[in-house]
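Researcher: I'd like a structural prediction for the single chain below. Treat it as a standalone chain; there are no partners to consider.
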Amino acid sequence: MKLIGTYLSPYARRVAAALISRGLSFEHEAVNGYREFELASRYNPVAKVPSLVLDDGEVLIDSTAILDYLNELTPSAPLIPAGSRARRTTLKLAAIGYGVYEQATSLSFRGREVPETEAKRWRAQILGGLGALNEAARNGGPLRATPLDAATITAIVAVEYLARTNPDLELPAIPALAELAAEYRDAPPFALTRVAA
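Model: Treating it as a single chain, here is the predicted structure.
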């Protein structure tokens, strides 16, 4: 398999972290969809990353769809649990983390270009997402599941992405989420995909 997308993208990074967490080997081509539009569009018609090129040449796009595929490959250690309640919880928390990525990106790239009401809404969405993830990261919470699942991977990447892209954003106390991210900081899925500052 070959993963297309720079680890500056939290979407590509969460796929790489999932691959590494399950011991799935892959090649990596660090394509930036913004800067290398034509190259990215060879894999995805809308030139977004990540894309995952399978060994037979099929190309999967969108990190959520790719994680779903990887889940099929690892039934003994699922990224997304099979049980309906656990599955819904994992998907919900992963979607919240994904939403943090989206709003952090908007705030970082466009925060000075939009009316303050828009930037204020993005900040509120980020803070709301972090609050929900912090609650889920408490001891015994769903983000404490082992092995790492799609929600936990997404949440940890969200914390690091937010710190890199919006370092001046005043954050509420998120002790459980911060502790979770610190616990996994040096774990291979995150250490091997972290972009140097």
